[in-house]
Amino acid sequence: METGKLRLRPPRHALDRRAIAWWRTQGALAFGPAALVLAVLGLLIPPAAGWLLAPAAVVAVLGVAWCAVLPRWWFGLHRWEVTDTAVYVSSGFLWQEWRVAPLSRVQTVDTLRGPLQQRFGLATVTVTTASARGAVRLRGLDAQVAADVAEHLTERTDATPGDAT
């Protein structure tokens, strides 16, 4: 965390590298069961084998491609930073988004660790602001870094006067 002037710029920090494995696991859990069910049904119902095994193969190939390519790509695109004046986040691959949330607009700071995140030692920090755009999420952070960020944000927002606009 550093002191700085509020300005639109790319955030400095990459996510934790374990986010790649986290995303891959999410992809496997999304594609794997569908491919497995189609394949098993195709093997159990011989008259339907052609129209069940072909989609099973397509889903499996798409899942493998998804898991092999997208998580590394996403890792290169997601950035975050917390300064004494704002929270910066950039994400997206087709629709790229840069968000800056001034600390004077922060309402709550939450930390989430779902079962997969716990398995990989990761966490998500959600910074809810007075913005119609919604919360700013720092996904794929090391769990201890997330706890430190949440503590820092809570301390800083408590010390930051609210925005009167």
From TrEMBL:
InterPro entries: YdbS-like_PH (IPR005182). Keywords: Membrane, Transmembrane, Transmembrane helix. The keyword Transferase does not apply. The chain crosses the membrane at residues 21-45, 51-70. Residues 78-153 form the YdbS-like PH domain. This is Membrane protein.
